[in-house]
Amino acid sequence: MLLYHDPRAPNPRRVRIFLAEKGVAYDTIEVSIAASEHQKPEFRKKNPLALLPVLELEDGRVLRESMAICRYLEEVHPEPNLLGVDAWERAQIEQWNRHAELELLLPIAQVFRNTNAFWNGRIKQAPEFGEIMREQVCSRFDWLETELARRPYLAGPRFTVADITAVCAIDFGKVSNLRIKAETHPHLAAWHARVYERPSIKA
Amino acid sequence: MLLYHDPRAPNPRRVRIFLAEKGVAYDTIEVSIAASEHQKPEFRKKNPLALLPVLELEDGRVLRESMAICRYLEEVHPEPNLLGVDAWERAQIEQWNRHAELELLLPIAQVFRNTNAFWNGRIKQAPEFGEIMREQVCSRFDWLETELARRPYLAGPRFTVADITAVCAIDFGKVSNLRIKAETHPHLAAWHARVYERPSIKA
Fold first, then answer.
1. Which pTM value belongs to this model?
2. How far apart are CA A200 and CA A23, in angstroms?
3. Are strands B27-30 and B2-5 parallel, antiparallel or unpaired?
4. What is the CATH number of domain B87-202?
5. What is the CATH number of domain B2-76?
6. Per-residue pLDDT tens for A71-98?
7. Strands A2-5 vs A27-30: parallel, antiparallel or unpaired
8. Do A91 and B99 touch (CB under 8 A)?
9. ipTM
10. Is B103 on the interface with A (CB under 8 A)?
């Protein structure tokens, strides 16, 4: 398998951590967003939307989207289970993974896209919207603190893909000075430390 | 089963069409976003994030998120299949469903949230960002036109959940004057008419 990725982007990191948890070997090709390599015709042949990550299988088939890749990997490498073992657990993990994406990762990405100098001249930015999203992220950190006061991992008693999405989101917030602090969010900080004990986090 | 929904919102509509395709009977409770009923403490007990839809099962268990609900329904009511029959098809449908959501529904929702008078005084709006998203939606309509020139449905030869997400997104664009036209997007318009032949579309 061949993963097209950028080491600095959060969505490819989700897939790399997922692969590391599965213990699956794969090759990588770096597609640098900073160098606009994702916009080049050669990469657009792999993904017309010019988005990372992309996974290419041995037979040349291509999957273009982070969760589509994770779902496929879960089926061909079922252990350790990261997406749920029965209908109810799968639904719960989907719910929390989508909360992590829609309520954390996407707003955090919008703060970065709309306020960071990195995107200056690359995309149209709306700093006002970035600041609205910054407020929303802070309120979502408070919400997450109440959730993680009740259980050790986002979707329940064990580590799942929802934790991968959430940790990639929160770590990506640092570049926009969105940081969780143990004084104000002790359970969220303890969960973050718990996730960081896993070797896969370095993937 | 009991579905908390707003008849005018796109995410509850995704679940209603999914349920109609499955032929499953259910009850509904309307939670009016216009009347801010989703913000009331009673509904927040069902979903602390104050988001719709929510599905409550007979035994009182609750699922709070549109795709988590669809995934659960697919497992307990497998026919007709809407999420894929094997690992590769499931990954393909996930990819296209997420493209429909991340590239169409979310930008279309951001146009509405940031430019429509409905939200005036309800949320902080950033009209500049709404206009950036409007441009993106138009470019995504062009992209979709090229995709639907190659196959009858978004994920392949048959109707799937990806078509449900895409049709709910495109119909939701109308309120923001985002419209597909047969003259400029003939394959997209033909696909839309094809989806509208299904009785489930009225759900």
1. 0.97
2. 9
3. parallel
4. 1.20.1050.10
5. 3.40.30.10
6. 999 999 999 999 999 999 999 999 999 9
7. parallel
8. no
9. 0.97
10. yes
